[in-house]
Amino acid sequence: MCRNCGSIVGAGEPQCAVCEAPTANHPASSQPSRPQDREAMRFARAILARPNKFTLILLVANLFVFLLMWESSKMSSQVLWEGFPEPVLATYGAKLNYLIDQYRQWWRFVTPMFIHVNLPHLLINMFSLWMVGPYVEKLYGSAKFIVFWVFSGILSIVASYLTVRPDLVSGGMGRFLFKTADNPSAGASGALFGLVGVLFVFGIKFRRELPEGFKRAFGVGMLPIIVINLFIGYLGRGFIDNAAHLGGLVTGAALALAAEYRRPGDRTSVSVVWRVLQAASLVIVVAAFYKVVRNFNRPVPQSPQQIANERHQTFLNFVGGMNLLQEQVSRVIHNNDVSQVEPVIQNVAQRPAPDARAAELRDRLVVFLAKLVETSNRGQRMDQSLTAELEKWHEDYIEWFKGAH
Fold it and tell me: Which residues pair with 237 in a beta bridge?
């Protein structure tokens, strides 16, 4: 720990990277050295003395929501590592395009930045917020910090929403940016990338005014962090939402271009515009979670894919029942075996029909089977009228099957 400005100093470092004061373990040598940068030390002390209460509030809010989601998952230790079930993610506000498009659930552009898929996801993002958030909040103040966080988070989710394009998923860059399916999207990483974008622009925009240590930490000093994270995103394309990361990064950079930072010793009040934007940001977040609470006990509508899968399963189940029924007809005709007729009919009757035409065909075959059993019980063989009736039914069934398949 630097004795002059309070910054953390790496082991073995001869001087503080922020204020350039010599460390306790490396006293100044007897050789002439450059005088200590008093302006750098004053700048560092002034910046580090500023509060960062909203960073702490965001940390607590994210942890609180995570605990609520865990409680909704019956506090299973398994979900902490494998991830919350999709219904839990959807209930708490994960981004799902079909819920935004079909049901106008606009709050899903806001709430995902406060929810996380599993415990590692939460810990990584909250550690990143703890490392980056205080710098942004101390440099720009709480009002601008909240605006940076909320707007970067929202526009990162908008970017994720716009890139669910299965038709564009081809090649390395296509798989990097676009998504093949409308899966739940959640996490604070888009907003975090926005804060990184803020520090990147800050270091470049004010490079002539900053002490040397701040120049190395911000601006181009953020490039390795950006490049490494984008490379990780490229390796993890398919399950990492890279479009959200880039959307947050660009938004944060754009906001930093329009914002001034509070210089040490500058006691002027924050402009009305930023106060209004801060209030609007907080209102948007509160309104979004109010909508989550209002809809909490309502069932989440099924996605088009889930509906299609359910219909397909119903179709397969029904066809399986009809195969059993036809096999029973064959046994009665060829073997005069009527022992399993009632169980088979009961089995098939319990399977829902995909549509009205399917239900009609099933009922017709059941009636035909009853006639066939009656004929068999009288010791008679199937006559020509029954044969024609069965052939007609089979033609109608094949026609329905081809249209429904």
Answer: 240
Report the chain's terminal Cα–Cα distance, integer Å. Answer: 71
Structure tokens at 172: 């390395």
Question: Which residue type is seen at 218?
Answer: F
Among the ranges given (38-42, 99-103, 116-120, 148-152), the one the predictor scored with the smallest mean pLDDT: 38-42
**Does pLDDT of 71 surpass 70?**
yes
Angle, in degrees to the nearest 10, between helices 384-404 and 304-335: 160
Distance from C-alpha of 37 to C-alpha of 208, rounded to nearest angstrom: 15
The whole-angstrom separation of Cα 75 and Cα 90 is: 17
Chain Cα centroid distance, residue 208: 40
Question: Burial, 270: exposed, middle or buried (Cβ in 10 Å; 0-12, 13-18, 19+)?
Answer: middle
**Among 130, 271, 155, 264, which residue's Cα sits nearest to residue 210?**
264
Cα–Cα distance measured from residue 185 to residue 156, given in angstroms and rounded to the nearest whole number: 11
For range 80-88, the mean pLDDT: 94
Quick check: helix, strand or coil at residue 73? coil
| Angle in degrees, CA 368, 370, 371, rounded to 5 | 65
Is residue 14 predicted with pLDDT exceeding 90? no
Q: Tell whether domain 50-294 is in CATH 1.20.1540.10.
A: yes
pLDDT at 39: 60
Distance between CA atoms of residues 365 and 385, nearest Å: 15
pLDDT attached to residue 13: 65
pLDDT at 282 over 70: yes
Name the pTM for this structure. 0.78
Instruction: Assign 268 to helix, strand or coil.
Output: coil
Distance CA 218, CA 263 (A): 16
Contact 139, 55 (CB under 8 A): no
Residue ranges of the chain that CATH labels 1.20.1540.10: 50-294
